[in-house]
Design goal:
- By secondary structure, this protein is mainly alpha-helical.
- The chain has one domain.
- The protein has 13 helices and no strands.
- Helix 4 packs antiparallel against helix 8 and helix 6 packs across helix 8.
- The longest helix has 29 residues.
- The two termini are 29 Å apart.
- The C terminus is likely disordered.
């Protein structure tokens, strides 16, 4: 797959997540965060697993996933669950503005994690693009923050796990070339963890689950199965630091869909923030082209 196509797939994933933000928040009116996470990603696993098996049966040339990659995929599922849990738990006790900005901090964390793991700094363009993305996310939320509270600390913890998730996905997706299997495993692990904690701590009733089922189905099939699987596919051919910046476009799409579907007003600061995020995405997209050495007509 070409780098351009991989980046486009990641941008579509960001669009899907942006559209699903409303479902993710309104489900909390009926059920707790762990129950929501568990049901959402068990549905996502059930949707992706048959497709994974179908492709494996059709393509007999596929090499089975190694035990190392299988263990890493399960670890990704645990990291994924922690990111989801801290985010959903924090959203309950903080503002949407704070949650959106603090979650976006993972964009600047990924380059540092990649640097530590690979002992190689990301391309120079990643750093200004990451800062532009975070600043854009801040403006997209209105350009102001409420005082930091316990919920905000939970969101920051979630951001750390999101940064680890993006980095590990990039590592295993490139090595194994099995994006559907990675996605299915991480969904299953995340879903099981969520269900265990949900029924142990929240004890949801069937009436509450039924009331939240439209949001659960949408978030599981669209935001989960489709969105996160597209992320895994795209990260086979896009470096993790660049992928994090492209995926930050989720906030832009969430704002646009909010203005379109919910009549929310973006405002001047929000429009500037959206423009900064799009500029950051464009920067990481064009930077690889600028790094290529030009070839003279004579071939010298």
């Amino acid at each position: 797959m070409t780098r351009l196509r991989a980046d486009l797939i990641l941008l579509i994933a960001a669009l899907v997540w942006g559209l699903g933000f409303v479902a993710q928040s309104t489900a909390m009116d009926n059920i707790g965060p762990f129950t929501f996470i568990g049901l959402r990603f068990l549905i996502a696993a059930a949707a992706v697993w048959p497709l994974m098996r179908f492709i494996e049966n059709r393509n007999t040339a596929l090499v089975p996933m190694s035990r190392s990659d299988l263990r890493m995929s399960m670890l990704i599922g645990l990291v994924f669950f922690c990111g989801c849990a801290f985010q959903q738990w924090g959203i309950v006790s903080t503002t949407v503005t704070n949650a959106g900005f603090l979650t976006g901090l993972y964009v600047v964390m990924v380059p540092f994690i990649v640097w530590m793991l690979y002992r190689k700094p990301p391309p120079a363009a990643v750093w200004p693009a990451a800062l532009m993305s975070v600043a854009g996310t801040f403006l997209l939320g209105g350009g102001g923050l409420n005082p930091i509270g316990a919920g905000d600390l939970l969101i920051i913890c979630g951001s750390i796990f999101w940064a680890l998730h993006v980095t590990l996905i990039g590592l295993v997706a490139v090595r194994s070339r099995r994006p559907l299997q990675i996605a299915a495993i991480q969904f299953a692990v995340c879903g099981v963890c969520g269900i265990i904690l949900g029924f142990a701590l929240e004890q949801p009733g069937w009436r509450a689950i039924s009331a939240a089922m439209p949001e659960i189905l949408y978030a599981g099939l669209i935001g989960g199965a489709l969105g996160f699987t597209l992320q895994t596919i795209g990260q086979r051919d896009t470096p993790a630091a660049d992928a994090a910046i492209i995926l930050s476009g989720e906030g832009v799409f969430a704002a646009l869909f909010g203005a379109w579907l919910l009549s929310e007003r973006l405002g001047v600061a929000g429009a500037i923030g959206a423009g900064m995020i799009l500029a950051a995405i464009l920067l990481v997209e064009l930077a690889p082209l600028a790094r290529r050495k030009p070839v003279s007509p004579a071939g010298t």
